[in-house]
Design brief:
This protein starts with 13 loop residues before the first strand and ends with a helix. Helix 1 crosses helix 8, helix 2 crosses helix 4 and helix 6 crosses helix 7. The chain contains 8 helices and 5 strands. The chain is an alpha/beta fold and about 200 residues long.
Length: about 200
């Protein structure tokens, strides 16, 4: 159980990125990567890649997802941890997208990987998010971009996010995501610049 001692130390910023579906966090993440050279990790992408790889763990995940159950916190954490260590030598920082999905995940992450420096929360009203997702659904062909599914997804998001927000008030930066992309990014820069100059 003492494997923690041999873990490489992460001495670059770790940023969690939260925001409901349609909040525009994907666009902001792209910009952050371009400007700061951070490695962008999305727990959803890591899970999908693992499933595609056909590994024994991927097969287990497929079975879990097909049964409609949630993937265990530990598995998501393990994938993130592996991705972080794999990129450690060349990363200027880590942008962990759509994570944590619930408070427990955040607590586990900090316990097993390292402390988070800043949490960027792209905040937009439910009406705005529904509207954006519906218009995206017209062109995206994504099956989950219909009104009923959207409202369910947003509801789940809001329920879990409240607990995270309250737990991490000191590190959380709530950003109004109903403005122009450039305005939002300007605010993002004001939170990330100090982290980078500090490093």
């Amino acid at each position: 159980m003492h494997s923690e001692l041999s873990q490489p130390k992460i001495d670059v910023p770790i940023i969690w990125v939260l925001g409901g579906p349609g909040s525009g966090k994907g666009t902001q993440c792209e910009r952050i990567v371009q400007k700061y050279g951070f490695v962008h990790l999305s727990s959803g992408d890591l899970l999908r890649d693992e499933v595609k790889s056909g590994s024994p763990r991927g097969k287990e995940l497929t079975a879990i997802m097909e049964s409609g159950a949630l993937v265990p916190l530990e598995v998501v954490l393990e994938l993130l941890k592996e991705a972080i260590y794999k990129n450690l030598s060349n990363a200027k920082g880590f942008l962990i997208d759509g994570y944590p999905r619930e408070k427990e995940q955040g607590v586990l992450f900090e316990k097993t990987i390292g402390p988070v420096d800043v949490i960027l929360f792209f905040d937009a009203s439910t009406d705005t998010l529904v509207e954006r997702l519906l218009s995206r659904g017209k062109t995206s062909g994504r099956v989950d971009d219909n009104e009923e599914t959207i409202k369910k997804r947003l509801n789940t998001f809001v329920t879990h996010t409240d607990a995270i927000v309250n737990h991490y008030l000191d590190k959380l930066k709530k950003i109004n995501a109903e403005r122009a992309v450039d305005d939002i990014f300007g605010e993002v820069e004001s939170y990330l610049d100090p982290l980078v100059t500090k490093a």
